[in-house]
Amino acid sequence: MKVKDMMIRDLTSVTDMATLKEVADMLSYSRLSGVPVVDDQGKVIGFISEKDIIESAFPKVGMDTDMLFVRNWAQNYLRLSQVGESLVKDYMNQNPVCVEEDDDEKVVKFMLSEHKKTLPVTRDEKLIGVVTRSNLCRVLMEKSDKK
Amino acid sequence: MIATVTLNSAVDKIFILPTRILEKLNRVERGISIPGGGGINSAYAIQFLGTEAIVMGFVGGMAGRFIEDEIRKTQISTNFTYIKEQNRTDHIILNKRGKVLAQINEKGPWVSSKEIDSFIESFKRILPRCEMILLSGSLPQGVSPDIYADLITLAQERDVRVVLKTSKEVLQSGIKAKPYMVLPDIRGTDVLMGIKINGVKRRVELAKKILEQGVRIVVQNVGNYQLFVTAEKAWEIKLPEVDIINSIGIGDALIAGVMNILKDREDFLEAMRYGAAASVASVLHVEAKVNSREQVEGFLDRIEIKELDLS
Predict the structure, then answer these.
(1) pLDDT tens digits, B109-144
(2) Whose CA is closest to B120, among A40, A35, A28, A48?
(3) Shortest distance, CA A12 to any CA of chain B (angstroms)
(4) Do A10 and B78 touch (CB under 8 A)?
(5) Residues of chain A with C-beta less than 8 angstroms from the C-beta of B128
(6) Which residue in A5, A11, A27 has the most chain B C-beta atoms within 10 A of its own C-beta, making it the best mutation to test that interface?
(7) What per-residue string of b and e applies to B234-249 under the rule 16 or more CB within 10 Å gives b?
(8) What ipTM is given for this predicted complex?
(9) CATH assignment of B2-20+28-307?
């Protein structure tokens, strides 16, 4: 199985000048955990995830930390409203791992070992879709149904 | 790659009724829901004819999710702009012979200026990858009738040819930006640009009036025949008779077939033949969409093309 068999051909993306609030709105509707960041030619230059957004509001608080950091919701809301206007370029991963259509199922191993929920798929460095864990599950189940 | 823009995409609910008594309780014999809107219909045909298609526009609410999810099941790429309001639902009621008994189209969602700006940014980013762009259909609320003219200008700055298929004032505004090809949507209107539209002669006259504004090609779909008009020549294309299941996507398939050839070369006769064959293939399915290249190519030899005497 190749990446082209398990990818979603969706080009949902943002530029590095988008705000974190715009990304949060987009993630909320699109049910994605993160989106590629592209330049004006569609070339992938970064990746911004829900984790990046949360960490922008609570620096140095990892997703695995206990929930003590959320005890003061008033302060948290204030902090979130402040970072909402921050720009993607300041919080994105600037070295995202991208895969290509003809890459094989080693991509799956990589996603699992590196805890990646979404990987951009590129052709000539330009975004042509994404591989997501949820779509991967769907494709695998469909394959097993056909057997 | 061809990008198709459907700013007012819809969930099309198609019902087939055994009778035409609309005033009473009707039991639907068959009903389906599919993603609809001109550009989306064309994208299906473009993709099945072998060219990569990408659909753009606005999606919101449960209807928007349905549209996006259904398209993602195909090989068509999506690049939608998410909006707060929900996409429209259109109801199309057919009889068993494919005749449209009633079509009830909602206006469409309200789109904010910020959402429009976001779409335009996505549109700019897709242009460098495209050989051609299709702008198709009506506009949702909140969108200026001049938006197609603005998008055409942006595409021309990148040397990307644009095809425009829409109606009324949106059409007239778009034509002023000189798109490469136009299919005027004349459903629900008898007069366009001051010309009463009836018969081949009047339709060619309408086409000439559009061409005068700097458009290269005008195509028209008129039931069992189609017209293809340039500044130099005009052709009438006769379609073979088939058992029609649903004809609402015939113009969208025509555009797709024509674009699929013209994106590579200006071979007008081949473009007309593919456009007509795709049109015929589209009416054979209740979904009104082309779903097989082989089926389209099976009709190519049955298309009759006649050059019209313009003197």
Answers:
(1) 999 999 999 999 999 999 999 999 999 999 999 999
(2) A40
(3) 6
(4) yes
(5) 41-42
(6) A11
(7) bbbbebeeeebbbbbb
(8) 0.85
(9) 3.40.1190.20
